[in-house]
Write a structure and sequence with these properties.
Blueprint: E1 5-9, H1 13-25, E2 29-33, H2 36-45, E3 50-54, H3 62-72, E4 77-81, H4 86-95, E5 99-102, H5 107-122, E6 130-131, E7 135-138, E8 143-146, E9 149-152, H6 155-167, H7 174-181, H8 190-204, E10 214-216, E11 222-224
Parallel strand pairs: 1-2, 1-3, 3-4, 4-5
Antiparallel strand pairs: 6-7, 7-8, 8-9, 10-11
Helix pairs in contact: 2-3, 4-8
Length: 232
C-alpha cells in the first residue's frame, strides 16, 4: 500500500509541495502537477494508482479534469475541496470520485482515506454478470450493455449495482446502501443515494422517469428488476 503511485494536482505551489513531501515521507510515490493540463501530461507519461486533485483551480477546474481523466481510464480520484455542500459531494462522488475530502483537513485523516480507497479497489466485486432483460450489468468491467450499447459505469455505480444485485429480488434500504456503498466516506448523506439512482436511471432506462430496472420500492429503498418480465 505504501508503494502506491499518487498524482497530486493543485494550483497552489505551497500546498502542492508540502503535501507531496509529507506523502512521500510516508512511502507513497508522488508525482506533482500544478494545473489540469500538466496533470494530463503526467497521466500520459505513467498511470498512477490514485489521483488527488483540488477542485477549485483556474483554467481547467477539478471537475473538468476528473472528467478528462475518466475518459482516458478508470483511475480512482480523491477530491480535495473547500466546498462542503452535500449536493456537490454527492454529484462528484457519484460521477467521478471515490472520495471527497473537505479543506481544511487533518493530514492523518487524508492518509487514512487514501489507504482505504486503495484497499477497497483491490477487493473484487462479487457479481460477474447480471442479465436484466434488455440490460446486462458487468460490474467487474465497470460497464453495462444497454440494448446492445456498452455504457461505462463509475466505481460508485458498480458498487451500488452489485449491492442491489446481491439482494435480488429484495429491496435495499437507503440506510443499508449508505453503509455498504459509502462505507469509507464519513457523514455520507441520503443525497448520495438519490444522485446515484438518478444517474444510473439515465444510463440504464429507456425513460428515466418511468424506470423498469432500478425500482423505488414501496416499502422504502431500491431494488433491481428484470425487464421485459420473463414469460412462463
Amino acid at each position: 500500500m505504501s508503494e502506491a503511485r499518487l498524482l497530486l494536482v493543485d494550483d497552489d505551489p505551497a500546498h502542492l509541495n508540502a503535501l507531496a513531501d509529507r506523502l512521500g515521507g510516508d512511502g507513497f510515490r508522488v508525482t506533482r502537477a500544478g494545473s489540469g493540463a500538466q496533470a494530463l501530461e503526467r497521466l500520459d507519461a505513467a498511470w498512477p494508482d490514485l489521483v488527488i486533485l483540488d477542485l477549485m483551480m483556474p483554467g481547467m477546474d477539478g471537475q473538468t479534469l476528473a472528467r478528462r481523466i475518466k475518459s482516458k481510464a478508470d483511475i480512482p480520484i480523491l477530491v480535495l475541496s473547500a466546498v462542503a455542500a452535500a449536493d456537490s459531494k454527492a454529484n462528484l462522488i457519484a460521477t467521478y470520485a471515490e472520495d471527497y475530502v473537505t479543506k481544511p483537513y487533518d493530514y492523518a485523516e487524508l492518509v487514512a482515506r487514501i489507504r482505504r480507497v486503495l484497499r477497497r479497489l483491490q477487493d473484487q466485486i462479487p457479481v460477474e454478470e447480471l442479465v436484466l432483460g434488455d440490460v446486462t450489468l458487468v460490474p467487474r468491467k465497470r460497464e453495462a450493455i444497454v440494448r446492445g450499447q456498452r455504457i461505462s459505469l463509475s466505481p460508485t455505480e458498480c458498487r451500488f449495482l452489485a449491492t442491489l444485485a446481491s439482494s435480488m429480488p429484495r429491496a435495499v434500504s437507503t440506510e443499508q446502501l449508505l453503509r455498504k456503498v459509502w462505507a469509507d466516506s464519513d457523514a455520507a448523506e441520503p443525497a448520495y443515494v438519490w444522485v446515484t439512482v438518478r444517474r444510473l436511471r439515465q444510463k440504464l432506462e429507456l425513460d428515466a422517469d418511468e424506470p423498469h430496472h432500478l425500482i423505488t420500492d414501496t416499502a422504502g429503498g431500491y431494488r433491481l428488476a428484470l425487464w421485459p418480465p420473463a414469460t412462463s
